[in-house]
User: What shape does this take?
Amino acid sequence: MPYVRNAWYVAGWDRDLPNNTPFAITILDERLVLWRDGDGIVHALEDRCVHRLAPLSLGRCEDAGLRCMYHGLLFAPDGRVLAIPGQDTVPPQARVRAYPVAERHSWIWVWMGDPARADEALIPPAVGLNDPDYVLGHGQLDYAAEARLINDNLLDFSHLSFVHAQSFGSGPEFAETPGRITPLPRGIRYERWNENSRGSSARRSAEPADVYMTYDFLIPGVLLMTGGTYPLGTARGCGHCVPDPALATGGVTFTSQAVTPMAGHTARYFFSWGPHRDHGDAKLRDALMVMAGQAFAEDKTMIEAQQRVIDMTPEPRIMPTVHDRGVTLFNRLVEKLAREEA
Assistant: This one.
């Protein structure tokens, strides 16, 4: 299955890129080098010198530029070669590809498609680590699996009842009752109420309550999820639609998650999670992150094993179930946008 290229992909956490330190990452099978210049501005180029194809990520930052440390060619942030040691003229074709870059929500985003179509309004509205309303922890995992398999996992929450029975303490309701799926222009929205519930271990309540959760899953592979615990009867009172957040009695959290396809069957998974400041503190954040570490390791074990089976299966085929509506809608959208790009 193809991936959308005219989209913003997460390349890393902004706090992990110090000034004047090149950083290498592969996205959609393209080698990139990112660096933050002395003024704090982030740039991204193809990680391949035009001279003898040495990686520019082994280079040296000079002012806003980047010097290849094999034979000394100096590159501008727009990809042009500015200088070649011992040579007065620089051929006009001496340049590498430059990628549009943006910093938002504590992530560094790279536009992998047509630079003329790079629109920062298309950056998914995640929640950054410095958001005043939340106390967030964060992390990342590298997968020996295709990004699309991680996306499918995040689009079908029926797996919570089985993969995460120990970590999240998810009950059978996720597998027994599908959530409500709504198509969005660049993704899908998932919503569900669990009525008369004590919640999962992530949102445990002392008394039975109505538990609401919702997430948007957006191009190219970004999940933005929130939810909370509400008094009994809230679900019925709002017609099983979106509740008034002011009525929440606890368990209000937010998680931003992003899946970045790297090289071949490898991907990087970025995540943050934590409580709303009115419903938790750093202690709860740390407890949630321990739980997340266990749960995301469970996902990783299953998805990497799934990838190995797929790789060994001639002409692998799947059999969709009732829970695959979100997966199907999102993958059809990806295929449509990819066709339009082609």
Observations:
- The mean pLDDT is 95.
- The two ends are 14 Å apart (CA to CA).
